[in-house]
Design goal:
It contains six helices and 18 strands. It has helices at about 30-40, 70-85, 130-135, 155-160, 165-170, 205-220; strands spanning about 5-10, 20-25, 45-55, 55-60, 65-70, 95-100, 100-110, 110-115, 120-125, 140-145, 145-150, 175-180, 190-195, 200-205, 225-230, 235-245, 245-250, 255-260. It has an 18-stranded mixed beta sheet that branches.
Length: about 260
């Protein structure tokens, strides 16, 4: 039976920027192996699969190598597809049931806001080989359940970093967030995200990393509403608002391709 698939660029207002994700609103349940093979075929950082459940959708995310616990940009893309393709009326919030609990999405104009769990980090000693593989001089290093967060002195250090991806692949974590305060009046902080262990050498724009970046920079800057820029080659803007143990991530999305899976 054929299955429609949509490719969306998330955390951008223009095509061919931000972070691309594929979205399948499923015609029928499929087995895990099929979803993993589709994610491998799409070869994007994440492919999202949705099936109706209760008052919302069961949402799962797969990289080309593995299923993951949380993905911001593919959730943004999923909400965008639900509204754009009229699976949901425009005034209705999207509800997702995931490995990270119940998540939500609302829309205001061209902006979509995700309701995600905060993923606070705590100061940590770096894993063996982490600093050498990043090739930077850290100001501070932290760790949460998934990722290391490494702060450096300035934005230029973030932009110029050329990590040894083979070395990072040996570090026992999902990924590494490299960050600093921004030197631009448009953004409060910048970041890059490397996750070669799960098949994503450098992610263009990472919503789940901003679940860590939001509380990290809110504490240091002294504000709960901030704007982050992820400085990948494609680049993307994420507005964040910290509220207790939740982070509200806002971004835009653009559909760039529609297709049909035949197998």
């Amino acid at each position: 039976m054929s299955q429609r698939i949509v490719q969306v660029d998330a955390f951008t207002a223009v095509p061919y920027a931000g972070n691309p994700a594929a979205v399948c609103v499923m015609n029928e349940p499929r087995e895990d192996g099929w979803m993993q093979r589709i994610a491998m075929e799409m070869n994007l950082s994440e492919t999202a699969f949705l099936t109706p459940e209760q008052d919302g959708y069961r949402l799962r995310w797969f990289t080309p190598k593995a299923e993951v616990d949380l993905c911001g940009h593919a959730t943004l893309a999923s909400a965008h597809v639900l509204w754009e393709d009229r699976h949901l009326p425009p005034e209705r919030a999207a509800v997702f049931y995931t490995r990270s609990g119940r998540l939500g999405a609302t829309r205001q104009g061209n902006w979509i806001t995700l309701d995600f769990p905060a993923k606070n980090s705590a100061p940590a000693e770096p894993a063996a080989g982490l600093v050498d593989a990043l090739g930077v001089k850290p100001v501070a290093i932290g760790r949460n359940a998934w990722d290391y967060i490494v702060e450096v002195a300035n934005a230029r250090d973030v932009l110029d970093a050329t990590p040894d991806l083979r070395g990072l692949r040996q570090v026992a974590c999902r990924g590494v967030i490299l960050t600093s305060r921004s030197d631009s009046a448009e953004h409060d902080f910048i970041s890059r995200f490397f996750a070669p262990a799960v098949g994503v050498d450098e992610d263009p724009v990472t919503g789940s990393a901003h679940c860590c970046l939001a509380p990290y920079w809110a504490e240091r800057i002294g504000r709960t509403e901030l704007v982050g820029f992820q400085a990948s080659a494609r680049g993307g803007v994420v507005r964040v608002r910290l509220h207790g143990d939740r982070v509200f991530l806002s971004g835009q999305a653009v559909t760039v391709m529609r297709g049909e899976l035949l197998g």
